[in-house]
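Support request, please re-run this one:
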Amino acid sequence: MARIKLVLDTRESSKRIDGTFPISLRVYNRKTRLLKVGHYTSTIGWDSKNYCLKKSQSNNKRMDFEDVNSDLEDKLYIAKKVLRE
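Re-run finished. Output below.
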């Protein structure tokens, strides 16, 4: 059975020039696949326990973190729904 979760892809090869990393869906099904969701943040701006952006970090101030977090939840929900079907 495959599993899906949101992660911050902190590989050096995925790091952007401004020092941010992509937020990705990690799909486990014999092999691990990373699917970028289109949002970026730094390692200190990512809450790995709750799988969302931290409001208190200064680098997330320029983003509307509530919209980004709801978008991340929607994409995770859709991916899990597709997996179940």
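DSSP finds one helix and five strands in the chain. Residues 65-84 form the longest helix (20 residues).
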